[in-house]
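Hey, quick one: can you model this chain's 3D structure?
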Amino acid sequence: MAKCAYRRERIREIEEKWIDENIGEEKEKHMKKVALEKILILLGEKADCRFDAIHGKEFCIFHDPNYWRDHPDEVRQKFLEHLERDEERFFIGFHLPSIEFPKIVNREMHMDLIKLHDSLSGEKTVFKGKIYFLGATIEKGVNFYGATIKDDAAFTWATFKQITRFNHARFEGLVEFIEAIFDGYAWFNGVSFEEASFKGALFKGYSWFDGAVFKKDAEFFAAKFEKHTWFNGTEFRRNADFGETMFEEGVEFIKATFKGIANFYRATFKERTVFNEAKFLGTTLFNGSTFSENARFEKSVFLPDLLEKCSDPFSRISFRRVNFKNPKEVIFDGCRMSRVSFINTDISRVEFRNIDWGKDFKIFYEKIFLIKTSKGRKAFLRECWRKLERTLDVLDGKKDEEISREIELEPEIYAVLRERTRRPRELEELREKIRKSINDLKERGKQDEIFKKVEGEDDLTLDNVLAVYRGLRDNYDYHLRYEESGRFFINEMRLRRIVGRGYDGEKPHDLGGIKTKLSDIVERVAMWFYEVLALYGESYARPILWAILLIISSSLIRPFWLWMQDPDWRPELGFILEQVKTSTLVFFQLQWDMRTLTIVERLLSIPILGTLVLALRRKLERRVRH
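Sure thing. Here's the predicted structure for all 626 residues.
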């Protein structure tokens, strides 16, 4: 009896003909043919059909494109028989009716390039070996609800024509949906993934990943979601890669948890985007991403410096070069922003509500920039030491609400701390880990390793850091929140003073360099006086206090001078009040004589009065810029 014609070079010819006849979109057709070539290379001779052809026909009952229509029960029964007894389960390119897998599939299974013309069910099935559906096409829905796949699974280049259900399935090995196409709804609610890749996948219908758990890396690089997508309550325990992913409609990550690196580099969010109450506990990169409509980060937890991560300057939330096309619809509400960066991003109209910028209102990139210029290294290390010591104190039973809240975000540490009496050995291991982190920070080699990380950052320049401060000032002025705006302005001016002009650390060698250095010294001294006198024009209380101090001091110096000349002399109250009057008139330039004290007081009053006028003008004449 003749063998089935699905062999050798005929396979490519047969598959390409099917692609041309059944796939309308040219882009998808091209992708399928490229995938076909790769699949055939991977399979080699194992793609050849081992069955006899139907009498008088070219193909076997599995490869004949129409036999399944008239004999569905026969094809289904024969397939399940081979699935049960065959040692090598290669079912390449089969045409099948609806299939329901048995509750246990014991060995590896290859169903690459299959055309399943009805539904496929593996509900609560346990697959003990690897399963492959490379390039498969399933016409009428997939149901793997509650299935367990104990080894790797590959659905790369597969097409799911209707609803796909993997709810509460467990993938215990690597699962790949690379460049897979989901034409209908895709349900992955409550799925447990050991490691998963949806790289380049296309979701044409609505998709749900609510409550899914990705135990290792989750890759969605260059995936495309054409309809609304939900990742609510999803847990990413390691790295999550959404780089260059496109969300055509809305996407929700409400209460999602990102424990490792969360990469949204150059991702596109075309409609409503919601990260409310999401937890970003590691480095998060939104660099180069685009938000076309509204975006919500309400009560989001930005904590990349969680516990010992505080010593890593690269552990941050970065919105570098982000394009907020509709910035008035972008809201950060109730977030802790101590490690958030907006370098080269226009945030002048983004709305910040109930934001914790830290007690000093310093942006994180100022601290990193000062590390780069060698001016803020000791402060950074001191801050890290202090936090680790506070963590150690909490492990020893002391109360610290801030550190305790962070520990609660780490379930393993929190469980040990809560059951300290039952798990003393594990608690001591945690203490030892923190002590080691503290000791590492004290080693010169470890310090250099930390500082070297920031030296090559091209965007970490003084102008870029100051631009963020200016953007925040403009933002808070626009929203009539002048007090916070003033805090950012003070930090901007302080940074200018601390860094100066020669922040690159180069020593002047020629006359021009020396002039620049002297000019820099004069400018920094002047800025220091301006800060002392009036907080760069942000405080009118300071010049008033300085004025009172100067008037009182001058009033007391005159009687003190007379007493020095005649120790028996005792000033009367009227005389002292007269001196106060004289000092007040001198201070306000209303009285003049050639005495030294008068000249000194008049000279000192000039900058005090000048800064007072500037501060009052800044307070009373501030206008919102629209």
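One thing worth noting: The two ends are 85 Å apart (CA to CA).
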